[in-house]
Amino acid sequence: MGRAGRTWLAGAAFSALAAGMAQAQEPAPINLDEVVITALRVEQPRAATPATVQVIGQEELTAQQALSQSAVEAVAALAPSFSPTRQKLSGFGETVRGRSPLYLVDGVPQSTPLRDDSRDGFTIDPFFIDRVEVVFGSNAIQGIGATGGVVNYVTVSTPGEAAGWTGKVMGQTTFDDSGEGDSLGYKLAGIAGRDFGVWDFTAGAAYEKRGAFYDADGLRIGPDSTQGDIQDSDSFSLFGKAGLDLTDTRRIEIMANHFQLEGDGDYRVVAGNRTTGRPTSGWRGTQEGRPPRNKVTSVAATYRDRDLLGGTFTAQAYGHDYEGTFGGGREGTFQDPRIAPVGTLFDQSANNSEKLGFKLDYEREVQAIPGLKYLVGLDGIRDKTFQALILTDRYWVPKTTYESLAPFLQLRQALFDGRVHLSAGARQENATLKVDDYVTVFAAGGGVEVAGGSPSFEETLFNVGGTVTVVDGVTAYASYAQGFTMPDVGRVLRAVNTPGRDVDTYLDVEPVVSDNVEVGVEVARERWRASLAYFESKSDRGALLVLNAGGTFDVQRQKTKIDGFEATLRVQATDWLTVGGAYSKLDGRTDGDGDGTLERDLNGANISPDRLTVYAEGTWGPASLRVQAQTFESRSFEGEPAANAFEGYTVVDAVGTWRLEAADVSLGIQNLLDEQYISYFSDTQNPTDNNRYWAGRGRTFTLTVARRF
Known about the structure:
Layout: H1 3-21, E1 36-37, E2 44-45, E3 53-56, H2 58-65, H3 71-78, E4 101-105, E5 108-109, E6 129-136, E7 149-155, E8 165-176, E9 185-195, E10 199-210, E11 233-245, E12 250-263, E13 267-270, E14 281-284, E15 293-308, E16 311-329, E17 347-365, E18 372-389, E19 394-415, E20 420-435, E21 438-439, E22 449-450, E23 456-471, E24 474-485, H4 489-494, H5 503-506, E25 512-524, E26 528-547, E27 553-572, E28 577-590, E29 600-601, E30 611-620, E31 623-632, E32 649-659, E33 664-670, H6 680-684, E34 700-708
């Protein structure tokens, strides 16, 4: 079947769906109930939260999973100021409001801040996610890493008081519009649980085989053989959760998640040509070395007592073990004439991070002051990180241990029958970085000895804010909050090339502190809701990604400022049709020469383009249809090479679902109009690198069959 035939088939399928929907008459009103945001460490309603928050529910996630193959892409499609994804295993350069978000799974941090490899978005299969809580803007309530906000994946749980076993099984297949057989992928997943009364249990497994990706011109998209790719890969995931109700108010819950994604290594890079506009492609052939992969295991135990001395006490202990293997090469950094002649040594690296941590919270009302609540807590974490060159058994980044102990206090005051909520808090971060004596790789000055040390820092982070219910359904808010993260110390440690250095005096561990100011208003009426937020984020000593002469990125401490606004609208036009959209605009500047003046734009590795999203959802009886479009506007960068300008593009997606008695059947079409475009990262970075001139995916079909029981 030719391209025109496949286009006709896609249109016919959705026309038939729409016709079938028109025969039913069941309304689907907008749910105006207030949302509870657990990512803020307390069960706090939206009306009391002085920040932009978004909760992506199960139905929205299910629709997006019929279009994309990762939780990151699902969030990026729905969150207004999330940057375009790279459609690769690495999320390098993917930001929220121009800064990196902190990814959590049930509150467990997934990031690797000491050697940030941007793989933290691929640590759990989306099949096991019940909802996603996105808190926009810098904050420190969850600790290190949330300079752009928090993305908390809340996992599925067994429904309470359910009769017998409940669960879900799913089969899915994905194939490219090109009709090439190697584009075929499939997924099988299942989860089941039961409430036995005083205890409950849920367990599941998922396996996914991904095929090759093709662009809209029918050209196979080249693999990212260095940072890793999700195309031509296999992933396997196990998930379990068990809970025990000790009393009516006390409960202990254990969650375990194992996720592994590994490339097949069946394709090699064919360089593109930026001059002629031909993107990087791939051809059949075995890649050298071990395939890139993510391997993650997280375990968390949570105890909650809702009636401890009149308050609620929560304790969580967690462990997180991560290994990220990267593709190999004969880069100059890997060369060592003591092992092999210069230019011949092939090697590859793996980033390793082991975390142990705990979180203690206690929240209680102050009886003497009506409406006043306090939250007091203590967080502790130990993160051991190193980066090894795995084929020659060398350390590229030495074993580095980050230890932190952080007490915090948060106050919330409700006034005027809950129409006004005020909040203020402080967090005292006390951190130490421990590095033993080590020797750099030969490429760094011939291999120099570096004396270890234990540099430390103390930082107090503040927040203050308030919300006002102006009239019923209209809430205004304003806030100031600080977030922080570590500079990528691993990049610094591995690059020391001068003898006589020691970690205590050479390594700058001063945290990257971002100050976030935000004002906004939200309106919720019977058939429509809207929001508008303005934000400004500053950092006196930010961590900017700057391209070096070798084609990789260094972290430079530069003053930065980002400001912008987000607007959203959702309208229930009729009982069966809902339409909506969002617009986000960002501006970012930095001080490249250190004179205190913000004289140049942040580049494409540090800020996303302005974006408009629109969608329409129709639901009648057992059928539903969602059509969505994302427009990323063109952008140029003052102070950057003209070749790094972004042309912009628009992508339209659609997904239709039939809810039959036997199962739910959905057909998702990504890039419905088969738009040919170059990805944002490729278009705005390193204009001389033809091995990373990647196009985005062309029209792609995903057929899903799922049954709940």
